[in-house]
Automatic annotation (TrEMBL):
Residues 121-130 have a biased composition (Gly residues). Residues 131-143 have a biased composition (Low complexity). This is Probable E3 ubiquitin-protein ligase MID2 isoform X1. Residues 541-734 form the B30.2/SPRY domain. GO terms for biological process: protein localization to microtubule.
Amino acid sequence: METLESELTCPICLELFEDPLLLPCAHSLCFNCAHRILVSHCSTSKPLESISAFQCPTCRYVITLNHRGLEGLKRNVTLQNIIDRFQKASLSGPNSPTESRRLQPQRPYTATISSTIAGTVVGGGGGGTSGSSARGSPATSSHSHSHANHANHINANHSPSVVAKMEPRISCQFCEQDPPREAVKTCVTCEVSYCDRCLRATHPNKKPFTSHRLVEPVPDTHIRGLTCLEHENEKVNMYCLVDDQLICALCKLVGRHREHQVSSLTERFDKLKAYQVSPGRVSDAVMEASKTSAAQTLENNLTNLVKRNSELENQMAKLIQICQQVEVNTAMHEAKLVEECDELVEIIRQRKQVIAVKIKESKVMKLRKLAQQIANCRQCLERSSALITQAEQSLKENDHARFLQTARNVAERVAMATASSQVLIPDVNLNEAFDNFALDFSREKKILEGLDYLTAPNPPSIRDELCTASHDTITVHWTSEDEFSVTSYELQYTIYTGQTNFISLYNSADSWMIVPNIKQNHYTVHGLQSGTRYIFFVKAINQAGSRNSEPARLKTNSQPFKLDPKTAHKKLRLSNDCLTMEKDESSLKKSHTPERFSGTGSYGAAGNVFIDSGCHYWEVLLGASTWYAIGVAYKSAPKNEWSGKNSSSWVFSRCNNNFMVRHDGKEMLVEASLQLRRLGVLLDYDNNSLSFYDAMNSQHIHTFEISFLLPVVPTFMIWNKSVMILSGLPVPDFVDGVATDLQEQQQQMGLCRQESPYLTGMKSCH
């Protein structure tokens, strides 16, 4: 039955033939499908009536139409009768193919039609059997199987309630009531979902509705599928391999893709899926066919998208964590704010009570004093009033004898009272009025108005121009904008290894030295390595937290040294400070030691230090000497021959008017000024280089690239006049700049140094 059904299927609509036309090539086509082909050829300049021919979609045979058009073609009555019988047979039992297709969800429409067209066009097959072969292809079976597995996976991992929540309610699209009833079936032919009542009303059990395919309710967007961009209302059902584009059947039959190679959607889907998901499981032929630009682009985009999604998820998780932390910190700070404000209010309340008590006590004391003064004044007033009354009565006395008897006594009392009037009248203290008392809380109010939450101080700034250094100390100076809010500083430092990622360097806490609880804006670090770069951070700290300064790179000065008398040739005279050496032809009495320069012409001396790390700079004042050799050597370098004649020493030398560098007996001429009076020597042990400079003219002369294996000692040889050394100097700016440029050039050129004491590279820069 399935084979018969495929033979009765139209190659355009993939439905059972309806009103089939018998084409001259013996193939058949639905009348409506043939009409759609003619309509697709129409344009404003070419109406439908003017179209006189079209191609058979199965065999590409050109069918010529007469003046009647499609009506002039014969109807395939026999085929229509067979279809009618097939439909009646399919309705006789529930297990028939048609009934099964009506009761089960329809296979993807795009996969069906693309399989049909792909079998016709790509495979090159003819006739109606092409659709059958495509429909039963393994790709289709695999695709259906994958959908079944996916459905089983969903059912296995979700309870029925969850699945029910995942599937949206599909309403009847034919109901006139509001809201519409829930759909029970979806007609694939009508592309409409019906409830039970509307389905019985619109789809009676008679032709042509018996050929309509009914499936379980599905959303409208699922049943309609994607439509073609060029042909309105036409569904995409195949894939153009040339343009990497979804197309419909009309695009292949009469459109611009007619000559292009196409594939069914199922086949294309399986190939891309196999290439992306399991490339190791498919054959080489399938792999080669699937490695198209679209697949690679899709794979790359998918990989980038997955990576981007992962990054976004991580970022979102961090943001969510920060949000949670913000919530926690905010709640904590709000509680702390309430607590602190309550404490302030309590302090104000207590102080209010204390001050009120003091005011009351002062009031009582002052009123007591004033009451005493009032009583004294009243007593004095009573006495004075009684004396005045007595005196007035005496003056009124007319009896001479009585007046004379009392007048003298009254007069004395009045005189005494008048003389002591200042004593009788008590003093009044104006301070007792309490008018010199004031409550002034203006300062406290300003402080309260300035209440705010405390933040971590701004990062301090290290002042490089104020920092100083010696060969074993560095004094770091810094400034802070929030100096008054900083409770202390913390200084951190470590040896600079050339790592430019300061964050990674800072996170490696094991290598950092920490000086805590610094109260000043400067600190001197002792016990550092000489000629070594250090990284410094300053941390400003208060109760709210801390912030770090930008890193600063500071360098200790070079290792100071002097000439070692034990190594000086017997025909060399050293100054008392061992900083100057002079050629003296008179043989001096000196004991022979293994480290002393000896031999004819080896008039040399070495420094009193061996250097095995850091970057060190010293200068040699050449004076009038025109024959000398200055450089470094291992302790094992022979003392009975010129420096540079062996593999353990490297020197810059002048022989009258010729300047050269020498190592392991090999010499190379270099250019230098005849007025060279001050030679700068830079030994960068950590970066394996020895450089010479004209210090007065700030010019680079030459650089040795050396893989140091042992500690080295400065060496000096002269054959006339004298030289003087200046050691423990900071590296000049012009030397530091040249050295940095040389290191960058070496890194860019990828110079490889040999693990041996031999000279690996000589170069001269001017």
